């Protein structure tokens, strides 16, 4: 299996990229600058958010640092433009495992940080008047497996009893009322709490447009091939960033490369693994008599099998998942960075999806409008890697969001910007301590990525090396 993961040039076309922004293929200059104080690699949600926060945090009386954003393909063409659009914090599921492993206070930091995104985002989108269809609503996590639901409920109740304020804001609906509450056939329990949904491509392009107008140099179609430490008299740390279009010297380099991070920094091999995900858009013919969904959903069949979906203002639905049809074929999804093809089995999985699962949708004639794939960066311990790459001053990382970056990245980027602008340590930001990238995490040979799947069980699976 190759560990050489770079974005392929011809990714599938997701719904979210069907209205390309004027900056989609933008290059601020014909040639690359020889030197830039800050180079950010990756123009997705993470890269654009870091640049946005840096520009917002510099002292208005001094001139801002030179920033160059290097993107291998079009602007925002990675996971951010291929996702489910779900801004859904975790308040009880992975949080309960974190509480068991690290204590409730440490887990509560993560829960609070994620939940903060939902309303902070609303405030920011309103303040900046960003046209990105951001809606705050309720997430309904529908459970189909009684035993798994019982385990989740135990974890939920334990967090509440232990004082986790974020979990307390959630609600559990039991088997007697779950179908009626959720509108989902066969529901045996539901957890509900605040969440949002968004057209993330539009959000990122708004940030990039503002950044370009502020003098940030955006270079699309510029894959970075290599990063090396270099002694340059003109710069504080000095990194050499080699691209297909020549080198750039920088004092600070930010890896906003999510799934592809380990190809540039081998320390992340096996720690951030590219995982292929599938999403689709389901449309409803005009005049169809269905009561439109207003809430977001996760439909969870068991510990490893779940789908997630959001309603859109135009009456369509974006659904992601379909894990049950490809999970046994490990090579089709694990350690895969090619988003240029869609798995046939996944396409058929979504046939009749709304009719099968939602009350009142049986005669809707809802149909699949488009299916696409995207590459997620799964971290071996399920937590993102944020901060200075151990032992590499001036090289920072913001990656490994494990298919769950929407409620983590914007405020994580604010913390990374603080580390760069104010030169403070990770501990002086407000980031959850578990998110810090550390040598201890990089040295840990264990991996959970394959552990919670039906192909788990072997020692190789636990090491993420199947
Ligand atoms: C199918 C799918 C569904 C998802 N659904 C959800 C969801 O509903 N909710 C949720 O919270 N999260 C979801 N996610 C995850 C979420 O989209 C990510 O966590 C988030 O978008 C990551 O943002 P990013 O900027 O770190 O990565 P990306 O958006 O992938 O951006 C990284 C960028 O770096 C560029 N790059 C990489 N290597 C190089 C290089 N060598 N040189 C130059 N450029 C490079 C890439 O081209 C890419 O544009 C989903 C992901 C997928 C794929």
UniProtKB/TrEMBL annotation:
<protein>
    <recommendedName>
        <fullName>FAD dependent oxidoreductase domain-containing protein</fullName>
    </recommendedName>
</protein>
<feature type="domain" description="FAD dependent oxidoreductase">
    <location>
        <begin position="38"/>
        <end position="418"/>
    </location>
</feature>
<dbReference type="InterPro" id="IPR006076">
    <property type="entry name" value="FAD-dep_OxRdtase"/>
</dbReference>
<dbReference type="Pfam" id="PF01266">
    <property type="entry name" value="DAO"/>
</dbReference>
<dbReference type="InterPro" id="IPR036188">
    <property type="entry name" value="FAD/NAD-bd_sf"/>
</dbReference>
<dbReference type="GO" id="GO:0005737">
    <property type="term" value="C:cytoplasm"/>
</dbReference>
């Amino acid at each position: 299996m190759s560990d050489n993961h770079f974005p392929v040039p011809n990714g599938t076309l997701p719904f979210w990229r069907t209205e390309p922004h004027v900056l989609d293929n933008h290059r601020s200059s014909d040639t690359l600058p020889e030197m830039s104080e800050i180079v950010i690699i990756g123009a997705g949600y993470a890269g654009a958010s870091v640049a946005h926060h840096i520009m917002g945090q510099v002292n208005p009386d001094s001139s801002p640092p030179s920033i160059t954003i290097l993107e291998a393909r079009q602007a925002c063409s990675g996971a951010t433009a291929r996702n489910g659009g779900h801004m859904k914090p975790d308040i009880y599921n992975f949080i309960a495992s974190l509480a068991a492993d690290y204590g409730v206070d440490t887990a509560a930091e993560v829960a609070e940080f994620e939940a903060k995104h939902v309303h902070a985002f609303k405030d920011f989108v309103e303040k900046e008047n960003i046209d990105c269809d951001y809606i705050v609503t309720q997430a309904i996590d529908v459970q189909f497996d009684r035993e798994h639901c019982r385990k989740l409920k135990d974890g939920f109740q334990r967090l509440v009893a232990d004082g986790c304020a974020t979990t307390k804001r959630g609600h559990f609906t039991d088997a007697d009322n779950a179908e009626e509450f959720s509108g989902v056939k066969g529901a045996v329990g539901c957890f509900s709490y605040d969440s949002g949904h968004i057209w993330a491509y539009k959000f990122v392009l708004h940030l990039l447009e503002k950044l370009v107008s502020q003098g940030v140099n955006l270079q699309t179609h510029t894959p970075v091939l290599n990063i090396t430490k270099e002694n340059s008299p003109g710069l504080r740390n000095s990194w050499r960033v080699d691209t297909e279009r020549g080198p750039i010297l920088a004092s600070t380099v930010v890896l906003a490369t999510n799934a592809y991070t380990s190809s540039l920094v081998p320390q992340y091999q096996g720690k951030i693994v590219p995982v292929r995900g599938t999403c689709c858009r389901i449309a409803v013919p005009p005049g169809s008599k269905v009561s439109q969904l207003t809430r977001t959903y996760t439909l969870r069949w068991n510990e490893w099998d779940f789908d997630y979906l959001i309603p859109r203002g135009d009456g369509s639905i974006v659904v992601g998942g379909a894990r049950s049809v490809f999970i046994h074929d490990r090579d089709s999804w694990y350690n895969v960075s090619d988003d240029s093809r869609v798995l046939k089995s996944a396409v058929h999985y979504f046939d009749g999806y709304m009719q099968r699962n939602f009350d009142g949708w049986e005669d809707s004639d809802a149909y699949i409008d488009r299916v696409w794939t995207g590459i997620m960066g799964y971290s071996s311990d399920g937590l993102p890697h944020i901060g200075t790459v151990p032992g590499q001053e001036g090289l920072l990382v913001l990656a490994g969001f494990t298919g769950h970056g929407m409620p983590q990245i914007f405020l994580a980027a604010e913390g990374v910007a603080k580390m760069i602008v104010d030169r403070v340590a990770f501990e002086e930001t407000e980031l959850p301590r578990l998110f810090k990238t550390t040598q201890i995490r990089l040295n840990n040979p264990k991996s959970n990525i394959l552990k919670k799947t039906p192909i788990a069980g072997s020692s190789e699976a636990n090491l993420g090396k199947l």
